[in-house]
Amino acid sequence: MDLTPTRYEQYEKLGPFEIKDFLAKVASKSATEASLTYLNAGRGNPNWVATEPREAFFLLGQFAITESKRVLDLPPGVGGMPKAAGIADRLDAWLKAHQDMPGAEFLQAMVPWTVKKFGFEPDKFVHELVDSIIGDHYPVPDRMLVHNEQIVREYLQWAMCGKPRPKGTFKLYAVEGGTAAMCYIFKSLKSNRLLNQGDTIAMGVPIFTPYLEMAHLEDYDLHFVEVHAKQENRFQYSDEELAKLLDPKVKAFFIVNPGNPYAVAISEETIAKIGKVLEKRPDLILLTDDVYGTFVPGFRGLMGAFPKNTIGVYSYSKYFGCTGWRLGTIAVHEDNIFDEMIANHPEPIKQLLDKRYGGLTLEPRKFAFIDRIVADSRDVALNHTAGLSLPQQVMMSIFSLAELMDEKKAYQKACIGIVKKRVQATLEGLGLEVPPNELFDYYYGLIDFEFWARKHLGEDIVAWMKDNVHPLDIVFRLAEDHGIVLLNGSGFAAPDWSVRISFANLDDHVYDDIGRAVRAIARGYRQAYQAATGKTPAGPGGGEVVKT
């Protein structure tokens, strides 16, 4: 058992997703040679998909082709652009003729539901869907389709805002997933001098690694302070940690809520504490990525509590099992601090921004921040081709409507049930009992190995382990000895001796094996300690709890 700490020094500068590539090669090789099952619980791609909205999407596409051929049908396969007049009635008739097809029942219910809920004109709404699924136009408006924005806005009220519902209207930009949203927001904050090189931001840690890495890039060169959500505080931000936000040098606070990798949502109590901070720092920018909020019933995020200060990021990828669709949104409230901050810039900066956006509008100083994000996403000059592809926006509409129409929240309960079962299996494998936490989303787990070892092996082994073993040894040992890939928690600004496990992407029955494998690693350290020191562990049970 090679425990040489220098063995892993070459990996210390890499992010966890880059280290994962090395771990995957090692684990795959080990699994093949030892006839083990290769298990990669390092990524969050779910292994389930939402079928009903997809059935509706593909059936709608078939109807759209008939509409295209109705306008023009020339050999060899040249169609026309669907027309709006009477299209809702034609869809209804077509669905009645094809009501045995998967998706027909959903589409038949969807159109009247949206007409009643949003007051849509049937022909205009159905034409937006049909023309967009064909994909025969550039996105107009470029920020987001008119009906799609209203639907997604209502969905985000449920997915991100919770109750009480914030007053006013959020303006949305449909983007290529949450990662694109992050890139566009960082770029526009810099372009509009809301964040400048050398500025200081706060990061709620542990946090999704790219937030840490982007801040360090030469393009942004931001300093940041860490606001810790600690395990001993049930992953909530303490008063002491939140006090860091009172420093006027801190321009923004970036969080993932519920957390990644620790998977706990911010509590109402903590939200109230952040509100107290905003009373003293009304200019503090909040950026919240709430992709996992749908896995916490009754979730309420910062966008719902503090819409004026918040830029909201949401991705459909995890909840609907659609990472390949690249569906995400950026949300900014109509009454926001960003427009105010831009309006209050010194005149020289205003003139620079006038020049940047002057080719897009006659009144660049009235150009809203959300529209600046759209323009900046295409380097301004290509703004006329901005916008998420129209077929993607149709899928976004249908995903949103599937959830909004599901009054019993059957789909949400099913998704939570999947990951919750896997969490329980992992805990059984680890030999742990964890008290329930209604704010836990069950999507990821953060196994704090040091915390666990201190409880089950004792202080002597933990002290020896920290002196003689590199923290990355855990993930490499899992890969080499068990064919298992987990991510190192240190890459998320989590404790060095922690590992992140995804409960989303493997079959239920393998998770107890992962738990037992982690226990086996601990047993190996206990044996190495005995061999090196000649001592019997003095911890609880002499370390016997790690026996399988």
Helix percentage range:
40-55%
Cα-based radius of gyration, to the nearest Å: 26 Å
> How would you sum up the global shape?
globular
User: Which stretches are poorly predicted, pLDDT < 50 over at least 5 residues?
Assistant: 541-548
Largest sheet: number of strands, sense, barrel closure: 8 strands, mixed
User: N-to-C terminal Cα separation, in Å?
Assistant: 19 Å
DSSP strand content = 5-15%
How many helical stretches? 20
Strands, count: 15
What does this protein structure show overall?
The protein is built from 20 helices and 15 strands. With 548 residues, it is of the alpha/beta class.
Strand and helix map with partners:
Blueprint: H1 16-34, E1 39-40, H2 51-71, E2 73-74, E3 78-79, H3 87-97, H4 104-118, H5 122-134, H6 146-161, E4 170-175, H7 177-191, E5 200-205, H8 209-216, E6 223-230, E7 236-237, H9 239-242, E8 250-256, H10 268-280, E9 285-289, H11 302-305, E10 310-315, E11 328-333, H12 337-343, H13 347-357, H14 369-377, H15 390-405, H16 410-430, E12 444-448, H17 449-456, H18 459-468, H19 473-482, E13 484-485, E14 487-488, E15 498-502, H20 511-533
Parallel strand pairs: 1-13, 5-6, 5-8, 8-9, 9-10
Antiparallel strand pairs: 2-3, 4-11, 6-7, 10-11, 12-15, 14-15
Helix pairs in contact: 1-19, 2-4, 2-5, 2-15, 3-4, 3-5, 5-15, 6-15, 7-14, 16-20
